[in-house]
Write a structure and sequence with these properties.
The chain is mostly helical and 104 residues long. It has one domain. The chain is 84% helix and 0% strand. Helix 1 packs antiparallel against helix 2, helix 1 crosses helix 3 and helix 3 packs antiparallel against helix 4. It is flat.
Amino acid sequence: MAWLYLFVAGLFEVGWAIGLKYTQGFTRLVPSVLTLASMVVSLGLLGLALKSLPLGTAYAIWTGVGTIGTAVLGIVLLGEPAGALRLACIGLIVTGIVGLKLVS
């Protein structure tokens, strides 16, 4: 169950990272409230996952899922560049996450 908590926490990290873009410096109410709620849920689920997972592994995977999701949504939603080198680097993060899961 801890791995599920961790993965969902990473998805909520994506939500608040993308949400930050839409808050316009926390000047827009609805995006700000949703972003703050995503932060709380993300950290809460990370805390639950840490009850049984090693800190270093859990934190690396949480940030990795957040990084990958945010980078992909930046490309899809915000028109950020999707060059081969950038995609290869995202692939390296995926490889690292899979590796950490396999050795934990």
